[in-house]
Amino acid sequence: MICKLQDLEQAILNYNGTMSVLFPLIKDKFMEEIMTNSKSGLHDGEENFMHEFCCFEDEYYSIKKDIILNHLTTIPVIDIGCQFGLQSEIFLDMEYTGIEAMEKVFLNNSCDNINYISDIFPNKEMDLSGKIAMAIMSLGYFDYAEDLETIQELSKAEIVYCTSTPEFIAKLKNKFKFCKLLNPTNVKKTRISSGVWKFSNHEI
Ligand SMILES: C[S@@+](CC[C@H](N)C(=O)[O-])C[C@H]1O[C@@H](n2cnc3c(N)ncnc32)[C@H](O)[C@@H]1O
Questions:
Q1: Does the Cβ of 142 fall within 6 Å of ligand 1?
Q2: What is the maximum span of the chain, computed from C-alpha positions, in angstroms?
Q3: Is the pTM of this model over 0.85?
Q4: 8 CA from centroid of ligand 1 (Å)
Q5: Domain ranges (residues) in the chain
Q6: What is the DSSP secondary-structure string of 14-54?
Q7: Which CATH code for domain 5-200?
Q8: pLDDT tens across 80-134, in order?
Q9: How many angstroms separate the alpha carbon of residue 80 from the centre of ligand 1?
């Protein structure tokens, strides 16, 4: 479990962008989840790939570190475009809801505080008011929903952490009073994304 500040610091140090730090820790329970709940299972290529990449873990480590440092762990987090929800392991001590457009098997689905919605965001039943929204390499890249409606819904959140295209980030900047790039000095040469932006209407 990578939830505490010292575990996150260690994971950030160990993660070099080429091999997953998270996957060895969750592999057994994820494979069990796949065997129990997936019709097709994972093929060898997919499993091997997950040792290199199971989610944008560097981004999720930075977000969780920021949440801990700002004493925000009691606020529910919504992970938009969560894929398999492998990163839920970093939010096991919080109320975490993942939303995913594609049909997937989700990690930690049996935990009381971990929930998943198989749907497209924006979703009529999901209200982001008073919540932390995370959208890491999901919104801004796919054609599932109109940017205008998506941004409107995102702007209801207490805090938004987002990694996306420069165009999508620019649109979000117009909706919030404060924005900053999280840990710009953490950006490693090997990483694909340009870092996590944090948006809020309170000083951050
Ligand atoms: C590149 S993956 C990133 C997954 C994860 N956030 C991470 O950082 O590893 C993008 C995922 O977002 C999902 N996605 C994109 N737009 C979405 C939307 N509007 N609603 C729900 N899921 C969405 C896609 O189906 C895909 O599984």
A1: yes
A2: 47
A3: yes
A4: 23
A5: 5-200
A6: H--SSS-SSHHHHHHHHHHHHHHH-SS---HHHHHHHHH-S
A7: 3.40.50.150
A8: 999 999 999 999 999 999 999 998 899 999 999 999 999 999 998 899 999 999 9
A9: 6
